[in-house]
Write a structure and sequence with these properties.
- By secondary structure, this protein is mainly alpha-helical.
- It contains 13 helices and four strands.
- The protein is about 60% helix and about 5% strand.
- The chain has a four-stranded antiparallel β-sheet with strand order 1-2-3-4, with helices on one face.
- Strand 2 and strand 3 form a beta hairpin.
Length: about 400
Amino acid sequence: LWRVLVTARVFVLPLVFYMLWVVGVVLAGRAAGIWELSLLKDTAAWFVVAGVVLFFSFVKAGSEAGFFRRTLGRTVRLAAFLEFYLNLAVFDLWIELLLQPLLLFASLVSLIGSRDPKAQPARRFADGLLALLGIGLLLGTAFELSQIWGTLDARETLLSFALPIWLTLSGLPVIWLLSAYANYQSAFLRVKWMSPDKRLSWRSRLAMWRTFHVRHRQMHGFGGLWAKQLAEAPNWSTACGAVEDFLADRRGQEEQERRRHEALVRNAGVEGTDAEGRQRDRREFAETIDALEWLHTCQMGWYRNRTKGRYPADLLKIFQPGFTRGLPDDHGIEMRVRRDGKAWYAWRQTVTGWVFAIGAAGPPPNQWFWDGPKPPPGFPGRSWMSRPFERGPNWED
């Protein structure tokens, strides 16, 4: 029963609120003369296809910067106009039956080709076929419209075109409210867990509202040490200080990330090392290191729990492509496992040409690191010119 109540609180009640909001917006549109009963089918189609997706994006809206700007851009992008234009005319049944399988086939081949370098010729063929089909649809729609132009109701057509745009735009405020609600509830729950008596005081609530108020996205990730400090704060000043310290730390991290990105852009293509002995051009360094370290963590887990004292040789296939941690699906990571399963290593060459490698020469937690202009000559050992657990300067961010 408790789980049902929690689910209702988190999803069902917000969904009911969202549906009532949409109904209210439609009634307001009818009063303003931009909605008619003839648009009921289009309205239902928008809600099922786009409206539900928009609703479930409220969690993403509370954590991703620029979410509303991107949603607005997608709503009025060229593709939306093309989709409406192509739906104005209906082709003969035999044409529809021929086009749908062709479009599906070409799209699948293009998708597979984008992930498999060996399938690039097939991908180019599929992309060319999609381009030809797209041009054919545009010309075919133009011809069909020329035949039925006199029968089109201009006002109804315009209302049908504008409907998904203003419905989506009117849904953004409620998505903002739901994302704020979700962020505050999540932060409140973390503070409650850290509280000695497992209760959330009004002092903690007000301290968070005083600092974050409508800037609820900034509280995403509030927890851990910060939540503990807030929950145990003995007075109002200490409670406010804990929240402000979290916000200052978050701003510091954002500033550090901004500087790191600027350095990546500034040093792109620049050869040589800095004063700390690190490569200046560090493109893909962080993503490569993250992926290799995650692979090492997975190897340790399988060695201990699943493969009975052996490092699995097929781990890349098992975890591909989700483990790549920011790298493209065609990540280029190469892995070798010794025949006895007691040693392994994996390496990747970044876009700069610099190579990172990680591996083990014995049971966990044995760990070796490598970086240089070429891949390592073999399994971890003396040839790696380092010692276990010893990182070079390029492994540090």
